[in-house]
Structures are given as C-alpha cells and as structure tokens.
Amino acid sequence: MSIEIDSVRKRFGDFEALRAVNLSVERGEFLALLGPSGSGKTSLLRIIAGLDFADAGRICIDGADVSALSVRERNIGFVFQHYALFRHMTVARNIAFGLDVRPRARRPERAAIAARVEHLLGLMQLDGLGTRYPAQLSGGQRQRVALARALAIEPHVLLLDEPFGALDTKVRKELRRWLRRLHDDMGLTTIFVTHDQEEAMEMADRVVVMNKGAIEQVGTAQDVYDHPSTPFVHDFLGNANRLPARVAGGRATVAGLDLPAPGVPDGPAVAFVRPHEFDLAAPSLSARGIEGTVAHVFANGPILRVEVDVPGLPLALEVEAMRGTTMVAVPERGARVALHPRNIRLFADR
Amino acid sequence: MLMAIGGRRHPRVIPGFGVTIGFTLAYLGLIVLVPLGALVAKAAELGPGGIWAVATDARVFAALRLSFGASLAAAAINAVFGLLLAWVLVRYRFPGRRLVDALIDLPFALPTAVAGITLATLYAGNGWVGGLFAGDGWLGALFGPDGLKIAYTPLGVVVALVFVGLPFVVRTVQPVLADFDAESEEAAASLGASRFATFRRVVLPAILPALTTGFAMALARAVGEYGSVIFIAGNIPMVSEIAPLLIVTRLEEYNYAGASAVATVMLAVAFVLLFAINLLQRLDRAQAS
Fold first, then answer.
1. Which of A81, A82, A98 sits opposite B192 (nearest CB)?
2. What pLDDT is recorded for position A178?
3. In the 8-state DSSP scheme, what is residue A191?
4. Which of A45, A101, A154 best tests the B interface by mutation, with the highest count of B CBs <10 A?
5. How far is B196 from B82, CA to CA, in rounded Å?
C-alpha cells in the first residue's frame, strides 16, 4: 500500500515535534526514518499508525484519507520498541490476540486461528514455543513474537519503532536480514524508525533523515551517504571531520588549503571530509597538504586509524585507511605528516 | 521458602536465613498465634459439640451470616469503585488530584466510632442522605411508599463497611496500575481490540492479583469491624446484629466460653475465605509465570 503524508504538523505543548512533514512511500517499499532522539521520527510513525493524531495535515493510505481513523480501524501492523507483549498470555495467545478480539461475524473459526498461529510460529522460527510465556523467551524471540502478533491480522503496512534497539549486536544482525526477507516475501510496505545509521543503510530501500521535526533528506542509502544535502546529514551519517572554512569569490580556505567552492555563498562555511578520504604522506614542499602531528595510532584489524593534531583546529582530525594501501608506512606518534583530502564537501555555515 | 532453604547450601550475598526465620516464627507466634491459641483454648472448654451448638444457634447464625454477607458485599463494592478511583487517580491529571488522593486514606485515620456516629446521623430517616431515601424524599419514591431505610438495617451495615474498606483496594491497585505499561494497551488497540476488550483482556488480568489482594484486605477488615458498624446497624437481633457485637454482648453476660466460641467460628470462616482467595491468586500467578 502506498502512504502519502501531507504537511503533517504536531506540537506537544511548546515543543514542535513535526513541522509540516511531506513524504510519500511507495507500495512495497522498505523505508527507514533515521534521526537522533527528539527529531520527530517516532512521532511521525505513531501518527501514521493512528496512535497519535496530527494537529494539521493528512495521512492517506492507498489514496484514502485515514487521518480521522483510530489505530484499531487502520489495520496496520505495529511493533513497539519494547515489544509490549501481553505478559499473562502464552506466545500463541499473544499471536492470536488480533484475531480473537474480532467481532464474531469477522472472526475466523477456532481451528483457522490455531492454524494461522502455527503458520506464523513456523515463519518466525518459533516452532514449539507457542505454550511459553513471554518472560520465558530471549530478547530476539520476543521481538519475533511481537512481529508475528502484528502480522497475524494480515496488515499491508508494517510499522516498527526501533525494532532492534534492545538486542545485542549479533542477534540484531541476523534479525535485520531476516526481516528484510520477510518484507520482500510478504509484499509489505514497511516503515521503521531507528537512530542507528548502519541499520538504516543496510536494510532500507530509502532513508529519510529527520532533524528537529523536519525531513532533511530522502534518498537511497548510497545517495544520502555520498551526496548529503545538509551539514546535519553529513554529520549524522557516518563519521566525518568537520573543518571550519571561509568562502570568498568562489574559492574556499580550509585549514590553510585553497580550494574551488562553486555555488557556495561568500562567508563562513563548514567543510566535511570523511576519515577514509584523506591521503596521509610525509610533509613535502611540492604538494601542499594539511600539516599536523600524529597524536594517536589505533590498529583495528586491517583498518588503521590515525588522529592528527593540526594547529588552529579545535579537534584532532581522524584519518582511516586500509593497512598497506594508501598509507605507505604506519606512522608513529609524534611524527609530522601532511593530509591530502581527496574529497571535500562544503556548506555555508548558517 | 524452598529457595530460602536452597540458599543454605549455596551461600547468598546476604546471609542470615537461620536467624531471620527463627525471629519470624517467634514473632508471629507471640503476636498472632498465642492470642488466637488462647481464644481457641477457651472455646474448647465447651467441646466440639458445644461450639457446634453455639454456631448453629439461630441468633448466632443470623449474626454470622450478616457479618460475612455484608463484608463480602462491601468488599465487592469496594473492588469495583476502588478500581475506578485508582484508575482516575493514576490515569488523569486534574486540579485537586492530590487532595482526592489524600482523602482516600481518611477512613483509615478516623476513629471508627466517630465514623459510625456520623454515618448513623447521615443515613437515619431524618438525616441528609437518609432523608433523600425516606418515603417522602426524592429518591425514596423509587422504592415504594415507605422509601428505602438504610440506617438500622443490614444495608446500613454494608454502608459502614464500604466506608472503612475503601482505602484497601485503591492503595493496592494504584501502584500496579501506575506501573502498567501503556504500550500494551496501544498494542491491543493496534490489533483491533475495542476499548472494552482491551480492558478486559489486557488491563484487568494484569491488575487482577492486586485487585484480589485489595478485596481480601477489605474483606478481612470488614469482618472484624465493630466501632463504625454498631451505631448505624441498630443491632436488632436476627436482623442487623453483627457477630462482633454478639461477642461483646456475650462478654457482658460473663459468658466467656460462649464469646470465644462465636469468635472461634468467625476465625475459622475468615481463615477459610482468605485461604481460598490466596489459592485463587496462586493459581493465577502460576498461570502467568
């Protein structure tokens, strides 16, 4: 089902949670709402679900305006951050809940409900756990029960709030892949909220980066990573060195370097360079680079991370390279080095 | 208990099982078992036949029936309205909420005789509330030409017991309700459950243990209540005479064995009731864990 979000606003007292958000989600898409806490991503998800209501704007699902419908009328699968399983019910009863509470006319036969529960247990790799209580399950199992419960009512839209937030790294990685497969197999339209950029990048068809109640950028993972449209997105997605800069007449001065800056207005600016976009070399007169002193060297498996103190910069610059490729030799602490950025992105500093 | 015994073999962080269990048993014995034992011993002077004769005496039986019947009714009323009060206090923010919250405990603090006299005055045929229900009052007309008599009837007994038992249910349910995860309710709604179904299938099972505890406490308190009831009850033998009053009456007649026989019967019935409630809770908990 396609979802259309049309200038949705939401305030909580003095706090503006969402400022006129517009977004369209394609049928069958897997979308990540990514942002720091307080960016409005969960508020947006809850408004799409009908758990909260917008102060202004519309939500349309498959062209029909559902803004006035309550959550129980929208037939949307919602998975809560802390799962919100019913503790006094067995796993099977939890999963059957959405079918059990239907009015008699629309309720499947008892045997049909049992068969559906059995099918979902199998699908979620929870075979044989139907008679357990949620307290007897591991975190990853609870997560899958929550998912099975949400899918039991056969929703076309699945919404997940920080679905893997409470799980350890290994389980999280497995579940990500598995959820993505499930989405593809069942033909769902899925939106999930996360503050973990890696998770968003790995799973989603498109990533929606949110900040302070507004959408900063929408695009594929590759797109937003390679071509961030705002300083915020650049800062938030992946590590980046942030350098103060000045732009005058189409040229920028960044840490002593003079660079072309087409399209950036004159005045203060910020430059971003990702750690792996630096070449590290010994200082030389022929090729001018950013000169500094090596403050720390961390060897993390094949990756070498070097921190370089540069006079005049408030923070040490972070440089990353695969061992034995761009770095000729492993630099030593205290050595003088020159950094040559291969890629710099400039933004006017507002 | 089993876990504590296991703890002797595997030392715990905080030791002292032997000392604490010894103290617990000695304390319980001194405070609870010795007085109750003395009571039963006194009653035993009559022999089992004698106690049976006392219990089945028409006046005693009527008093016991009123005491337990009215207590169960009052505890049931308190369970329903106490839950409602706790719900309102936990779920909503309104001006004067703290004041209402403080008012809940007043029945605990008030001397029971004061409560009894006040209630008797209010609910008598010429009192403020009693007047409304009298034959010529607004509400009384609904109950026929004579209206509804509250004071000096079993109904008055129930009113007094509702008053003294109110805080128990509110105070046991309140913290559980406050801890209850609101996301569970939202989950139920997102699965299509109506408000009523959400309450009955999700909220109520979660607070049921606390609610039954509150019910049991209100019941226990009501069975033993004396001061607030005797003023409003009118104490008409066979009609509105409660068992505790009958015990006092027997004492005033220097019939100590008779008094303790009635008390022993009360004790036995109360024990069976509370034990049954406990058993129900245990079944419920076994299911949930």
1. A98
2. 86
3. E
4. A101
5. 19
Judged by CB atoms closer than 8 Å, whether chains meet at A133 and B183 is answered as no
Please name the member of A87, A133, A153 whose beta carbon is closest to the beta carbon of B191. Answer: A153
Q: What is the pLDDT of residue B1?
A: 42
Which tens digit of pLDDT belongs to each residue from A71-89? 988 989 999 988 999 988 9
Residue A152: how many other CB atoms lie within 10 Å: 22
Query: Residue A219 forms beta bridges with which residues?
Result: A207
What residue ranges of chain A are covered by domains with CATH 2.40.50.140? 240-348
Q: What percent of chain B has pLDDT over 90?
A: 57
Nearest to B249 by CA among B262, B233, B231: B262
CATH code reported for the domain at A240-348:
2.40.50.140
Q: Which CATH class is domain B48-288?
A: mainly alpha
Give pTM, 2 decimals: 0.79
Q: Is the pLDDT of residue A24 over 80?
A: yes
Q: Which residue of B has its CA nearest to A87?
A: B288
- What is the domain partition of chain B in residue ranges? 48-288
Q: In this structure, are residues A206 and A220 in contact, taking their beta carbons and an 8 Å threshold?
A: yes
| Structure confidence by residue, pLDDT tens digits, A222-247 | 899 889 999 999 988 888 888 888 88
Any idea of the CA torsion for A78, A83, A88, A91, to the nearest 10 degrees?
Answer: 80
Residue-level pLDDT at A192: 94
Outline which parts of chain A fall under CATH 3.40.50.300: 3-232
Q: Which residues of B touch A100 (CB under 8 A)?
A: 201
Handedness of CA A208, A211, A215, A219 (dihedral sign): negative
Give the distance from residue A112's alpha carbon to the nearest chain B alpha carbon, in angstroms.
18
For A146, which residue in chain B has the nearest alpha carbon? B187
pLDDT at residue number A314: 82
| Contact flag B289-A98 (C-beta cutoff 8 Å) | no
Q: B193 to chain A nearest CA, in Å?
A: 6
User: Tens-of-pLDDT digits for all 289 residues of chain B?
Assistant: 444 454 456 667 777 888 889 999 999 999 999 999 999 898 888 888 888 888 889 999 999 999 999 999 999 999 999 999 999 999 999 999 999 999 998 888 889 899 999 999 999 888 888 888 887 777 877 787 777 888 888 999 999 999 999 999 999 999 999 988 888 999 999 999 999 999 999 999 989 989 999 999 999 999 999 989 999 888 888 888 999 999 999 999 998 888 999 999 999 999 999 999 888 888 877 665 5
From A150's Cα to the closest Cα of chain B, the distance in A is 7
Q: Which of A76, A101, A152 sits opposite B193 (nearest CB)?
A: A101
Inter-chain CB proximity B197 and A51 less than 8 Å:
no
Q: Which amino acid is at A335?
A: A
Chain A residues within 8 angstroms (CB to CB) of chain B: 49-51, 70-72, 75-78, 80-82, 84-88, 97-98, 100-102, 133, 135, 149-150, 152-153
What single letter denotes the amino acid at residue A180?
R
Query: B180 near B207, Cβ under 8 Å?
Result: yes
Distance of alpha carbon A126 from alpha carbon A117, whole angstroms: 10
Pick one of 3.40.50.300, 3.30.450.20, 3.30.420.10, 3.40.1190.20 as the CATH number of A3-232: 3.40.50.300
Is B280 at the interface with chain A, CB within 8 A? no
Shortest alpha-carbon distance between residue A66 and chain B (Å): 14
Buried b (16+ CB within 10 A) or exposed e, A156-175: bbbbbbbbbeebeeebbeeb
